[in-house]
Write a structure and sequence with these properties.
- This protein is α+β, with helices and mostly antiparallel strands.
- The chain is built from two helices and three strands.
- Strands 1-3-2 form a three-stranded antiparallel sheet.
- The chain starts with 10 loop residues before the first strand and ends in an 11-residue tail after the last strand.
Length: 62
């Protein structure tokens, strides 16, 4: 996830990901959930999901 396109603290837009990959929004949500479980993303309520390369995703800090 730590690429120029998805740098740390990058806000992931479900709509943009659906358009980019041509899959259903539910598929994107499942992928985001799996990446959160692997501590690659963290989610801030009412803001969205962000790339986290620090390994602190569970605590919501990066």
């Amino acid at each position: 996830m730590n690429t120029p396109e998805y740098a740390p603290k990058y806000l992931l837009s479900e709509v943009r990901l659906v358009q980019k990959f041509g899959v259903a929004r539910d598929t994107i949500r499942k992928a985001i959930r799996q990446l959160r479980e692997k501590d690659l993303l963290y989610t801030v309520p009412n803001l969205g999901s962000f790339v986290d390369s620090s390994g602190n995703a569970k605590s919501g800090e990066s």
